[in-house]
Amino acid sequence: MSLRHDVCGIQMNTDTPDANGVIWTVRSLSDWVAPDHVQQIGDATGRPGGVLLEERHGVHTPSIEGLAFAPTLDAAWAAINQLNRMPGIGASGDLVVYESPSPKSLRVRQGDVPKSTNPQPNGLRWLIDYKLTFVALDPYKRSVTAKTATIAAGATVSVTNAGNVAASLTFTTTGSGTVIVRQNGTGQILRTRTSVASGTTFDSASRRVTTGGGVDIFPMGTPSEWLSIPAASTVTLTNQGTAPLSATWYDTYA
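Now predict its structure.
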């Protein structure tokens, strides 16, 4: 088989049958390389050409096509039903591609109706030709394994992002106190107005602050900023607050 994929909980291109005995393969993976490019250009004033108003990454819309081999006709129909739950309307799942030198994961939602042929006899097996189309509202791929660092009050640590776009940082307090984290390379500071409890999480990717119980709060005060690690960079973080922290991030790729 070729490159391994994990698609919403199903291993593909591994020759390993799923719970129904179906072996899934991937024939092609489209639009995995990069997310959409969003660019707005306005008219220039008093000169030829234009001016760039906005430029950013948009959504990511990968799709996969392949074949599923089922040992029985019942297993083939079970595979067709499984396609409708990969990940299914209103749900999300992970598309993992085990590319070299490290696998990358993209959180996806269903982007179009799953398509498949009816089961076709293929020797002693039944064959299904399928296509799955996804949309990733967060367009960035991430390493499968998270990186972590512990930052005691008053301590400074180095953190590295091996990816090609900035990696968002998530901080979780491991004790109560104030949160003041400085990204020393840029001088940006994430801070709270008051002391917060242990287990409070600051997620720079989603711009959310939650308690240990998952309740949204927003104890952020000016000049507080969300922190990230630039592409292919190592930076230092200093904990200038009184709460000990755990930092989490992923190598992040476009």
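The radius of gyration is 23 Å.
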